[in-house]
Amino acid sequence: MIETGNVDVYLGLDVGKGEHHATALTPAGKRVFDKRLPNNEPKLRELFAKLRAKHGTVLVVVDQPASIGALPLAVARDAGCRVAYLPGLTMRRIADLYAGEAKTDARDAAIIADAARTMPHTLRDLAASDEILAELEMIVGFDDDLAAESTRIKNRLRGLLTQIHPSLERVLGPRLDHPAVLAMLERYGSPGQLRKAGRRRLVALVRSKAPRVAERLVEEVFAALDEQTVIVPGTDAAALIVPSLAGSLSAVLDQRRILAAK
């Protein structure tokens, strides 16, 4: 439980994307602030400074410590205020104890402040571990987005390769995670361009990314090219699209590797 014996003002924030509603109560329950507040640092800092100057120790409480609640908490800490959060499920249960059924930002902010004042055992401390968890959740969420984008691009690439040259897709499709394959497709986006580049040039290109498999991979590519002599309609268009998709996939995979390293 958070110790609130030295708190002089309980500031409840019902956080929102563009603005918050702030309600401040003294330990006796007197309302000393009850207004909307823009979600920007200068206005937040101004309010925190005024409350501290006039009343003393301020406890800032939110019901969403991450996302839209992150800035108010960061400013509050920097301004010398204490911070805590009231879990959403607890908040909903407590709200049933208060008069009125209509959910408004002002009502929610008042409930948060009053719960902090009268039921401090319901509050959760925002320790360093919570901040680390919030950062990890953000990184994992971004990685999930990148993974979905990677899958989308791979499917598109494999679909194009299957359409214009199934044999080539069977060689390169399962290896689209490999930088050497993407470098090859980014430089030479069609069967004709691969053949025209020649074995020696392709081996040199692949060797810079995968020295051990360069010659074997290029031989497999040329064996696949030899299995088809006709040019399928759409091949020229695919030659424009494939390099772009390969470049995009390479960038997405690089971002995932950077995130994993962190």
Automatic annotation (TrEMBL):
<feature type="domain" description="Transposase IS110-like N-terminal">
    <location>
        <begin position="11"/>
        <end position="166"/>
    </location>
</feature>
<dbReference type="GO" id="GO:0004803">
    <property type="term" value="F:transposase activity"/>
</dbReference>
<dbReference type="GO" id="GO:0006313">
    <property type="term" value="P:DNA transposition"/>
</dbReference>
<dbReference type="InterPro" id="IPR047650">
    <property type="entry name" value="Transpos_IS110"/>
</dbReference>
<dbReference type="InterPro" id="IPR002525">
    <property type="entry name" value="Transp_IS110-like_N"/>
</dbReference>
<dbReference type="GO" id="GO:0003677">
    <property type="term" value="F:DNA binding"/>
</dbReference>
<dbReference type="Pfam" id="PF01548">
    <property type="entry name" value="DEDD_Tnp_IS110"/>
</dbReference>
<protein>
    <submittedName>
        <fullName>IS110 family transposase</fullName>
    </submittedName>
</protein>
